[in-house]
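Researcher:
Attend to token order:
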Amino acid sequence: MSTDIFISYSRRDKAFVRALFSALNKLNRTIWVDWEDIAPAVDWRKNIYKGIEHGNKFIFVISPDSVASSYCLDEVNYAIKHGKQLVPVLCRETSSTQLPLELAKFQIISFCGDISFESALEKLLEAIDTDLEHAQVYTRLKLRAEEWGRNNQHESFLLRGTELATAEQWLLDSTSKKPKPSEIHKDYITASQDMQRKENNRWKELYDEAQKRRTEAEKSEIRALCKSSEALFESGQYFDALFEGFKAGADFKGFEWSESEPKIYNQLVSVLQQANYSVRECNRLVGHATAVSGLSFSLDGKLASGDNDGIINIWNVDGSLIQTIEAHADCINSIAFHPNSQLLASSSEDCTVKLWKVDGTLIDTFTEHSSDVGGVCFSPDGTMIASIDDDGVIKLWQLDGTVLQSFKGHEFGNDICFSPDGKLLASGVSRPSDTTLKLWDLDGNLKKELELERGVQRLSFHPEGKILAAVGGSNAVLIQIDDLSITELPTEKWQIASDICFSLDGSAAAYSDSDGNLKLWKNNTVTRVFRQNCSINSTCFSPDGSLLVSAGIDGILRLWRLDGNGLTKIFDGYEGQSFYGLSFNPDGNTVATGDNEGTVRLWNRNGDPLKIFDGQQGIVEKVQFSPDGQKLASTSASDGTIFIRKLDGILVSKIDTEGRTWDISFSPNGEFIASVGADNVIKIWRIDGTLVKTFQGDENQYNYSVCFSSNGRNIAAGTSSRKIHLWDINGTLLKTVKGHARAVMSVNFSADGQYLVSGCRDNTVKLWSQDGELIKTFRGHSNFVYCARFSPDSQVIASASFDKTVKLWRLDGSLIATLRGHNDAVMHVEFSPDSQTLISVGRDNKIIAWEWNLGLDRLLEYSRDWLQYYFQSNPQENLEATSKDTLLQR
């Protein structure tokens, strides 16, 4: 351990040294003097040397005796040898000629003569404290360096961190200070610096490797979430697919490497895009421990749910829980809101019907039933309650519990409901011995009876009162009240249809089954199929018809938003129509469609109908705007005509192609139109209908598709013989392109003229160079590809298929998104000129506009907005999904 001062003196000056020692000690200086530090029997000379080495300053007490002492002079020389700063102190007058040369060059501090001890001490302290810190570091580093040397210069004895930084600064500052650094100081600091660099490099390598592994782990996590989202999407679990994709996207945005991984970025865009297009489930309400068996919406928008434990929960539509009621001692079978929204009725397997206020206050318990009570409902005017029990007994009650009517309706009983005018009761049962549906007046007189194949599990009247919906067994039916005629709704074989209901405006019906399917019936067709991964027991519409709620054996209420999140717009078609032809006007504001009734329709971009053009027979296979947007061509496969009209409907020309015509294409300058059909001929026409040229293809083939190149010099035609023919405008066959396994239904040149895309009955899309060399085959459709189109910037391909999907592809073959919204074959797809919208048409009476050109940030915004109520209802899920991207939290 170092000391501030080493004092060298003659024993005859001990009295002075004691006084000096005492004064310095009081001033908190640490001092080494031989009387203090050398124990008996210790090698005193070695210890004196050690004391000198550990002292920061060396005081030599000058007196005639000390300058004559060989021991004292030896100590001086040893101090000089070790670079110690000497401070000579005169305690007795001594001739200057007696002083050693080493001391003569120093300024001597005198404690003799007229100088007071205190004054001399002050000068001594000034000398001691001058560069004391420098001297202290000098001593400390020298000792450390010597220790390093004694230990074979092992790196563990070198300086590190702040110690090294202090030594480096000391070395820089020492140029104007004494004692000067010795070689051992310099060697020691240099060795420490070398070792520090090696350690830094080693730690950097370890850090870089750890960072690399962490980054790979993070990337693997994102890829795994994307794969999970894709798998959930393919299984129809779109909400879960969106949630997984959102988690992946939120995490991705929080990683430093995100901007350098375009492949992962594109994968995220793909999973979020397709999930956002298809998702309709918007919230999950968790509050039941057992299966939910009854649901009801009040007219003011409150939602009630009853479960197998006899618990009723009342919710706001945003998912917040208003009230929990311990309602029954056994399973609740049915619940219903009063028309005033302030009362609630419930029925249970505890053989009771109960009437409640919505705040949970019990008004009355109706105990006249002797078996499980199934259905319960209020009359439309709110003055009565109807119920049916497991013995088939139907009861009508006043709200005070008075029984108005009680009669045996069936051998057993499942459900009951009032007609909208309040004059009839419908009841039904589904048992092997009784599968009847019955209509009663309020006096208990049977008015009509219908035997249903599978009986009745649940009933619902259409708001107009002319139709009654029923489910039982695997059947779902609509029954006309006047003649009891039946319309069967599509159901899954072997699955039990569990519930059915109408929207309040009567525009839609929803029905569910035990396999977790929830179907939306609208315009005489199933327009949507929602799926959850457990059996559904009950379903109902919100009063405004925007939400559908389902609940089942997992005790979770699922809310489905029927209008989606705004990324798609469905044009209102017409019953029985199938759309085939589609074209965007170059100005991007008008869309043309052709249907199966020979009709061409013009729409604005928002889906509002503008004009209708009639005159053609059968299916209008193709429609196309001229390049200047002033004319519209349409062709009918049935009568082989091409109509060219101005947009006000004035006919420019009517071309008879003398055969079935399947495709047409305007030349880029708008002066010509090419047509192909049920022969091997490509025909080039002027706009006025004059035939200019014919190209003869292979014998015994059809030409299904045709397209001009962007420069107008070439024409591509897709054939029934699995080939694509490339022609120049003069009719010279440039190349026959082979590669497809079946008929080529669609060809399209890219706007930049670099590529050709084809869609085929072999379920593939192929990308070719402009001269017909295969670049990439895109696989993913499970049925015919009927149309393939480039985006205006030539970077994306859209394909429409008989598998009811549209797919978006990058040119490298990677899938951007699968767009699900059609319920039948998709016949055509087109990009808007600004690339922001994609429109598809199909045989399902649908025209769908998709907002597709979205980056990750916007997709995350859409996802967050869609999931916001779910996050409010399930805050822990919000924490998990947004933990790495707080910007996404609101």
